[in-house]
Design goal:
The complex is a heterodimer. By secondary structure, chain A is mainly alpha-helical. Chain A has nine helices and no strands. The N and C termini of chain A lie far apart (47 Å). The chains are: A mainly alpha, B mainly alpha. Chains A and B meet through helix 2, helix 3, helix 6 and helix 9 of A and helix 1 and helix 2 of B.
């Protein structure tokens, strides 16, 4: 099923809406899951957020105006849900005086495949040290390889600001990797 | 998606080299993606069925309960406001303590020094006969600003010679100091 067919079934609110949802999930679940996972580090948290994203999609896709592409809208919902989650976690940890960045690093280290000597894991640790929005910019560009125009629609930020943010993030990540 | 070469080129222009190996390295549960669509379908079904249940509480409430409760509550509040409450007046203790201490010291010194001197026996007898409760009552009833005025009146109206009393107190203190230096 193409994106247009999926949107059509949702907007018609017909009996094939559930089939359309199934097709949508199968098409986008991996991309969205990894995008969220890179933001929040932990599988359980990523799973919760991904569920919330698709519940929202189920409720709101019928009203989708098509101003942007479907996948742009999906990434937008996923990014907003991830940042909202991280902000809530920050408030909770501020109350208990625990370190947010340290917490995300600990979640990475808790992974059964974690290997501090491998470059890929060091990169993950470096990414978790970035501020939330900058982390989103970096992962969307570096991992999802999205054009700046698409990232601009997802994050509602100008292309110029995104380029500056990405370049700054890349330098921070490189410096973090050199530190060890 | 944008050409990966452009992204690598962009990083090279920044003078940055990042690890380009396998990207999604974090572990996920087995069959996670295979099972996810059915989990979402179940969750949506559950939420939809929950949404169809009324939020109205099913418990029985007697007819006109809230109207009656409101008027009963208001009545109770008004009754409480009308009930007279006893006010407890606590005297200013430190004033009384200070005044009692001053009078006691003055009277004690006077009695001590004039035990063998010609004094007004009637006043001495009166003081000796004074009960503690009477002194407390006097202090409690007398306002502070009048207390020392009354005390002075008492002294003025007696036959006690205040000047000679003062001189005697001072000479007694001198004698006591001389005795102490002898013992040292």
């Amino acid at each position: 099923m193409t994106d247009e067919e999926i949107i059509k079934h949702f907007q018609n609110d017909d009996s094939s809406k559930e089939l359309a949802l199934n097709a949508l999930i199968k098409a986008y679940q991996k991309k969205l899951y990894w995008h969220i996972r890179r933001m929040v580090a932990d599988h359980e948290d990523a799973d919760d957020i991904l569920q919330q994203v698709f519940i929202k999609v189920w409720r709101k896709l019928g009203n989708f105006r098509g101003d942007s592409g479907l996948y742009t809208w999906l990434y937008r919902v996923a990014t907003n849900e991830s940042i909202t989650f991280l902000n809530k976690e920050k408030k909770r940890r501020t109350a208990s005086l625990t370190d947010e960045e340290g917490n995300l690093s600990n979640k990475l280290k808790a992974d059964r495949h974690f290997d501090a000597d491998k470059a890929e894991w060091k990169l993950q640790m470096a990414i978790q040290s970035l501020p939330d929005k900058q982390k989103a910019v970096f992962t969307l560009r570096y991992y999802d390889e999205l054009p700046y125009d698409d990232i601009s629609r997802i994050l509602d930020t100008s292309v110029g600001a995104l380029k500056a943010s990405y370049h700054h993030a890349a330098k921070k990540v490189a410096a973090f990797l050199k530190k060890d | 998606m944008e050409n990966i070469n452009n992204i690598n080129k962009e990083l090279k222009e920044l003078g940055i080299e990042l690890p380009l190996g396998q990207k999604d390295i974090q572990s996920i549960p087995k069959n996670y993606f295979e099972e996810f669509p059915s989990r979402i379908a179940e969750l949506i079904q559950y939420e939809d069925s929950l949404a169809s249940v009324s939020k109205e509480m099913p418990h029985f409430v007697p007819k006109d309960y809230f109207e009656l409760q409101t008027s009963l509550t208001i009545q109770k509040i008004l009754e409480q406001d009308k009930t007279p409450q006893m006010e407890v007046h606590r005297p200013k203790k430190w004033y009384n303590m200070a005044a009692a201490a001053s009078i006691a010291i003055l009277l004690s010194i006077g009695m001590f020094l004039f035990s063998s001197s010609p004094v007004d026996q009637s006043l001495e007898n009166q003081i000796a006969e004074l009960q503690v409760e009477e002194v407390d009552q006097f202090l409690y009833e007398t306002p502070y600003d009048q207390l020392f005025g009354k005390t002075l009146d008492l002294i003025e109206n007696s036959t006690v010679d205040v000047e000679s009393l003062e001189q005697d107190i001072l000479s007694e203190i001198e004698n006591l100091n001389n005795d102490e230096s002898h013992h040292l």
